[in-house]
From TrEMBL, chain A:
EC number annotated for this UniProt entry: 3.6.4.-
SMART domains for this protein: DEXDc, HELICc
CDD domains in UniProt: SF2_C_SNF
Top-level taxon of origin: Bacteria
Domain Helicase ATP-binding: from-to ranges: 471-645
Protein's name in the database: DEAD/DEAH box helicase
EC class: hydrolase
Molecular function (Gene Ontology), one example: hydrolase activity
Gene3D superfamilies: P-loop containing nucleotide triphosphate hydrolases (3.40.50.300), Tandem AAA-ATPase domain (3.40.50.10810)
Helicase C-terminal domain sequence ranges: 772-926
UniProtKB/TrEMBL annotation, chain B:
High-level lineage: Bacteria, Bacillati, Actinomycetota, Actinomycetes, Pseudonocardiales
Pfam families: SWIM
Residues of the SWIM-type domain: 120-155
UniProt xrefs under InterPro entries: Znf_SWIM (IPR007527)
Keywords recorded for this protein, A-Z: Metal-binding, Zinc, Zinc-finger
Protein name: SWIM zinc finger family protein
Superkingdom, natural source: Bacteria
Length: 940, 369
């Protein structure tokens, strides 16, 4: 039988297909040996039943004519073993008579069986809803074997012509071979026992089963992807993936012949949607089988720029040829090695920005760049390999130089590692001096600075490190924001910085014109006095000038400074005055402008903030005790003033940083932003491990405040009136009047409303102490601190409570009249952190109070008895208190409070003896002494 | 075969517009056909009033019941189906571009396809006079308002699903998709003239451990998917046997049952296989099964040679009956392949195959179970 040619006749379902052995019409023999194959020839196994020996078969002859020849049709159950043996025989040199067509189907059946032996059969439905096993899934190597075998199909193996074609056509080899392989696969799992075991005939019995109800079960969804081949020419090849088995990928060309209609329909519809994302795929849809389409270079360019992204978002992957180099990358390089090192960040300094292209991380040579720039195709031969070139990259190769950045912008880009180029976030790398500077800034300082000569104080270690940092940032012209917790000594650090800048030639900046020059401090009015005191105390000899109040003038450097220009001093002013006189202040040449409590300019649209920006300076430093990093817009306002240009303008800042970080919670952007601002922001907490041990358990600070105009007028009137009464009295009466005077003055210093006993007073803006208290509380509450506020007067405590409640601050009020159970509740609430501000009338601070949660104590007015004050302070500073306690004593400048505080400071021993009895001691003073004590003196 | 009748639920009351170009073409055919605009307008009102019941579409015919006052009229619209030859031409055009079918599957009618088919003499969309109304009402206009209402709603159906038009023209969606398969061919003379390369060299047969992990199938009513899994393994086993021997592993249905039960003990009950036969199959396949089933008389020479060996090994004296040599509760059966198949008598009094066959009777007799 093997000497006759075999032909495959597909049928539906596949297992009902047949193999026919026939007498070839072109037989050159005389017909004596093989005109009519019959069962005698089939051999001793199989094919014993069924067909008579004279089936007829219509085949196409080599001349294109149609012939009907004698044949023997065998079902696959019989053909499979027969062909298996024929394949073996064909390999046997002793059996030269196996017909090539039969040897071919023998090879095909062996291929099918080998795949079935690996378990590659799956149930499916034919287009007509019959049950059919299919030969699937196949590996790429299996598909290659199918293609190779199909290429070797002899014409006699497919001699049955297609219906309805004239002239006659034979079926294409590969679809016919795949149909045969599926027919074998459909035969193998079935049999009598299979049907018994399955209990139902579907997919088990040999007889065709019509099972439309299983269509959905058998149907596997598909998705498509596009494989690019090329580059000569580029082609798009459609690949089909089965959703149920992601490893199963078929070229459409392989899938189409054997696939069921549902699979083809799914794949076609998926392709149509892909073509909407990238239109060149429409070319596939114009073909009968959407297997592959040639792409123009412009298509590939489009695919590289936008197409692949759009396809990806449509769920369609693009696979590029593996032998095509695709790791051509571009990054932006800042600065260059040859330029001068950037030492001062003025607004005019520019930094070069260039695209640097690299292949596999290796920068391209100028020659390679030129070749890339001249490329007319999306592929270029670089380093002996085809390299895929995104047109955007080619453009970058042509236009390597980008718009230069200002030095500050470049530094920002170097710190974040990214920059916005043409509206897109691009990775950048700094080189040369810029990169070295970036590394230096990114590294916190290990070395503390040497304390400047002339500073009359010992700076703590962290203060020296802060000084070094401030010095470096300001001498680079970069500005900085020192945001240490209150009490860590920002003022004294700044004073040290001023001295340092005016006495040292900075080795880091040898080529600038030095850092010397006057320092302008802008601060809330309530802090003016404090600044002046601290400067006078820690930098004696340094000129201090208050630029405040009526008739204010700026010091003339030549006339106001003793010894000419050798010692530059401080000018102190308030935010209000600065806003009015910004133009005048702008005319001076400031070595340094300092904004204290810089949260006052956190609203960038305010007139104050705008005015502050108009004052030029060699360097700017912002001081604040509030954690500005919590609101990025506030942080922007401060850093954009200290280091203009670093963060960009506000809308861009919001779009690039604030929104991603605060709204989207984009971790990567937050991380980059931190890298950007960290060098410009120094914030130490009292609780930081390196800081806490350095802090004393208790720090006491006098907080001088100026009287308001109303207070000053009232004060002077009281002095005038009551001094007159005192002079005209003696004995008990006089002592009583002295006490009355002192009480009245203390009340005026506290608040005019207290003295005047106004029933429903307006409180804001009338008392220097109250303003400073607000200032302190803002900072303390921002730090999550807790504070005790002591006053001798219950009336004042009530005023404070009303005022603070109006400002939204929760308070507790404890005084002598508070019932004991309520006291305990109040203390409990404070200790639990429910109430951050505890107002205490000093008399009430008797026994049994334990207020260790407080880390700040404010003495709103003075008892003038240190022992009593200490006792009050100790309420907070008890055993169990882990936080250092800061004590703030509010002192009205130029008043009796101030005078007595000075006495206490200067001569503690004497004061102790004199003042041991408190107010009572003062009643012994003579009229002149008393007048000198209570007289209001100018603060300056 | 695929169902060529499709029902569509009645449209609720509400105004609708025909938006697609093919839906408009359908309405245009209706308007061109009509001599009187009155019934057309009434028909549209009826359609929008939701007076048309469920619409049935089948080759050549649309049908629905239309309510008109107290009466219900049975209304139809006839459209000539395409002939088989016309369908062949249409399917040939459909197969020319994969995008045509994709568009139809996305429920869009490609204009290019309709034009190309029309050029080839295959009218897909109706033209003047192609929509032939029929109604049980006694109105004399053509179409009557009932048929016009049906036509309006049919246009809405077409808008959403152009396959309705193909169904009216004679074929269901599944048939069209199946028919759209392109069959590529080669002219016979070319095929015969083309030189054919040698067959690729044969690949070695896969070893039994090359079998993939068996697939998992979703459960479905009417199929035992657990057995389907085993059939994949069994197909692999049969394929290995064919590759090794050139023949099926079983000669008949009984052998097939025994074979499957031997390979998959979990199927034994379902297959109702004789347990002794299963033991025999495991002992030595179809030959062992024959030894179990059929006593035979070996040739004289074989018997004599066996007796000599038996004595030489000083084995106990057996009782010999035809090919069966019995020693107490042990028995050796001489097989047609010249090997001895060991058996043991079980308490049920029957002989059970045990152990493996050997050419040497001594080994076979002493082989542990």
């Amino acid at each position: 039988m093997e000497r006759y040619p075999a032909v495959f006749e597909p049928a539906d379902p596949p297992r009902t297909s047949t193999i026919a052995f026939y007498a070839p019409p072109d037989h050159e023999d005389d017909g004596s040996h093989a005109a009519s194959p019959d069962h005698e020839d089939v051999g001793d196994r199989g094919a014993r039943s069924g067909h008579p020996g004279a089936d007829r078969l219509t085949v196409a002859a080599p001349d294109g004519g149609r012939r009907t020849v004698p044949a023997l049709r065998l079902p696959l159950t019989e053909a499979i073993p027969l062909l298996t043996r024929a394949r073996r025989a064909a390999g046997d040199p002793a059996r030269p008579d196996v017909h090539p067509a039969t040897a071919f189907w023998g090879a095909a059946v062996v291929l099918a069986l080998q795949l079935v032996a690996r378990g590659r059969v799956r149930p499916a439905l034919t287009d007509t809803d019959f049950d059919a096993w299919r030969l699937t899934p196949l590996d790429p190597a299996d598909h290659a074997r199918v293609r190779d075998l199909a290429a070797a199909m002899p014409p006699h193996a497919r001699a049955v012509p297609l219906a309805g074609r004239d002239p006659l056509e034979l079926p294409d080899a590969e679809p016919l071979l795949r149909a045969f392989l599926d027919a074998v696969a459909d035969t193998m799992p079935r049999g009598a026992a299979a049907a018994t075991a399955a209990g139902a005939p579907a997919f088990a019995a040999t007889a065709p089963q019509h099972v439309p109800h299983l269509r959905e079960w058998a149907h596997q969804g598909v998705r498509v992807s596009v494989r690019i081949e090329g580059p000569d020419p580029f082609q798009a090849v459609l690949q089909v993936h089965h959703l149920a088995d992601p490893t199963l990928v078929l070229d459409a060309a392989e899938l189409w012949p054997g696939a069921g209609r549902a699979t083809r329909a799914d794949a076609t519809v998926a392709l149509r949607r892909a073509a909407r994302a990238w239109s060149p795929l429409e070319r596939l849809l114009d073909q009968p089988v959407p297997d592959r389409a040639t792409l123009a270079d412009t298509d590939v360019e489009q695919l590289l720029t936008t197409g692949a992204v759009r396809l990806a978002s449509a769920g369609v992957d693009v696979h590029w040829p593996t032998d095509l180099v695709r790791d051509l990358t571009a990054k932006v390089v800042l600065g260059d090695d040859t330029g001068d090192r950037p030492t001062f960040f003025g607004p005019d300094q520019l930094t070069a920005v260039n695209w640097q292209l690299a292949l596999g991380g290796d920068p391209l040579t100028p020659d390679e760049l030129d070749r890339l720039a001249e490329a007319t195709r999306p592929v270029v031969r670089l380093r002996d390999r085809w390299t895929l070139v995104d047109p955007e990259l080619a453009r970058r190769a042509r236009e390597r130089a980008l718009k230069p950045l200002t030095a500050v912008q470049a530094l920002g880009a170097a710190l974040t590692g990214t920059a916005e180029i043409d509206g897109a976030e691009v990775e950048v790398t700094a080189t040369g001096p810029l990169d070295r500077l970036r590394q230096r800034l990114a590294r916190p300082d290990a070395e503390p600075a040497d304390p400047p000569p002339g500073l009359r104080a010992d700076l703590r270690d962290y203060q020296l490190r802060g000084l070094r940092w401030l010095d470096r940032m300001t001498s680079l012209g970069l500005g900085a924001c020192l945001a240490d917790d209150m009490g860590l000594g920002k003022t004294i650090t700044l004073i040290a910085l001023h001295l340092h800048r005016n006495t040292t030639r900075n080795p880091e900046t040898p080529d600038t014109d030095g850092t010397a020059g006057p320092t302008l401090v802008v601060c809330p009015a309530s802090l003016l006095g404090n600044w002046q005191r601290e400067i006078e105390r820690f930098a004696p000899g340094t000129p201090v000038h208050r630029y405040h109040g009526a008739g204010r003038t700026l010091p003339n450097r030549d006339t106001d400074t003793p010894g000419g220009s050798t010692t530059a001093g401080f000018v102190l002013t308030t935010y209000g005055t600065m806003r009015l006189d910004a133009d005048r202040l702008a005319e001076a040449h400031w070595g340094l402008v300092v904004a204290d409590e810089a949260q006052h300019v956190k609203n960038p649209a305010s007139d104050t903030a705008k005015a502050l920006r108009r004052i030029p300076a060699r360097a700017r430093v912002a001081l604040t005790g509030t954690p500005v990093e919590n609101s990025l817009t506030e942080l922007w306002a401060i850093l954009d003033w200290t280091t203009s240009g670093l963060l960009g303008d506000l809308p861009r800042f919001k779009a690039r940083w604030a929104r991603p970080v605060e709204v989207d919670h984009d971790h990567a952007t937050a991380e980059r932003f931190a890298r950007l601002v960290r060098p410009f922001l120094l914030r130490r907490r009292k609780t930081d491990p390196g800081i806490a041990p350095e802090l004393p358990a208790k720090t006491e600070t006098d907080r001088p405040v100026a009287l308001t105009r109303e207070q000053a007028a009232l004060y002077e009137a009281v002095v005038r009136e009551l001094m007159e009464e005192i002079r005209n009295a003696d004995g008990i009466t006089r002592r009583g009047r002295v006490v009355k005077l002192l009480t009245a003055l203390k009340q005026v210093c506290n608040h005019p409303a207290q003295y005047l006993k106004e029933p429903r007073p307006e409180l804001a803006g009338r008392s220097g102490k109250l303003e400073l208290l607000d200032e302190l509380l803002d900072t303390i509450l921002a730090e999550d601190g807790a504070v005790l506020v002591f006053t001798q007067y219950v009336a004042m405590a009530r005023l404070l409570r009303r005022h603070l409640t109006d400002r939204g601050v929760t308070t507790a009020l404890l005084h002598g009249g508070t019932p004991v159970p309520e006291r305990e509740t109040l203390v409990h609430r404070f200790q639990d952190g429910q109430v951050p501000v505890f107002l205490l009338s000093l008399k009430a601070a008797g026994t049994g109070l334990n207020l260790t949660r407080a880390d700040h104590v404010v003495h709103y007015d003075r008892w003038w008895n240190p022992a009593v004050e200490d006792q009050a302070t100790d309420r907070a500073h008890r055993i169990g208190q882990t936080r250092p306690v800061q004590v703030h004593r509010l002192i009205a400048e130029g008043t009796v409070e101030d005078r007595i505080a000075a006495m206490l400071r200067a001569k503690r021993d004497l004061a102790d003896s004199v003042l041991a009895r408190g107010d009572a001691a003062l009643t012994e003073l003579t009229d002149d002494e008393l007048a000198g004590l209570v007289e209001l003196r100018s603060g300056t | 075969m695929t169902d060529r009748v499709k029902g569509f639920p009645a449209f609720p009351k509400g105004a609708r517009r025909t938006l697609t170009w093919w839906g408009r073409a359908w309405l245009q055919a209706l308007e061109d056909t009509s001599l009187d605009n009155g019934p057309l307008r009434q028909g549209r009102k009826y359609a929008q009033a939701g007076l048309v019941g469920t619409i049935t579409a089948s080759p050549g015919r649309l049908h629905a019941a239309v309510h008109d006052g107290d009466e219900v009229h049975h209304t139809g619209v006839l459209l000539t189906p395409l002939t088989d030859a016309e369908w062949d031409r249409f399917l040939a055009h459909l197969s020319r571009k994969a995008g045509h079918l994709a568009a139809l599957l996305d429920h869009e009618m490609p204009r290019e396809l309709v034009d190309a088919a029309a050029d080839a003499g295959v009218p897909l969309l109706p033209g003047i006079g192609d929509l032939d109304p029929e109604c049980t009402c006694d109105a004399w206009e053509l179409p009557c308002r009932h048929a016009a209402a049906l036509c309006h709603q049919a246009a809405w159906l077409l808008d959403a699903d152009p396959w309705v038009l193909l169904l009216l023209r004679g074929r269901a969606q599944d048939e069209v998709v199946t028919g759209a398969r392109p069959t590529a061919g080669v002219p016979a003379t070319t095929a015969y003239a083309r030189p054919v390369p040698d067959l690729p060299p044969a690949c070695p047969n896969p070893s039994p451990d090359a079998l993939d992990p068996l697939p998992e199938f979703d459960p479905v009513a009417g199929l035992d998917v657990a057995v389907l899994r085993l059939l994949v393994a069994d197909a692999a086993a049969k394929a290995r046997a064919l590759l090794a021997t050139g023949d099926w592993p079983a000669d008949d249905d009984r052998q097939d049952h025994v074979r499957l039960a031997a390979a998959h003990p979990e199927l034994r009950d379902r297959l109702h296989a004789d347990p002794r036969a299963v033991h025999a199959w495991r002992q030595g396949g179809r030959t062992a099964l024959r030894v179990l089933d059929q006593p035979w008389t070996p040739p004289e020479a074989d018997t004599n040679r066996a007796r000599a060996t038996w004595r030489g090994r000083e084995l106990p004296e057996p009782v010999v009956r035809r090919n069966r040599w019995t020693v107490r509760d042990r028995q050796l059966r001489y097989g047609p392949d010249g090997r001895w198949y060991p058996y043991r008598r079980r308490p049920d009094g029957r002989w059970w195959p045990t152990g493996a066959p050997h050419h040497d009777p001594a080994t076979a007799l002493t082989d542990p179970d």
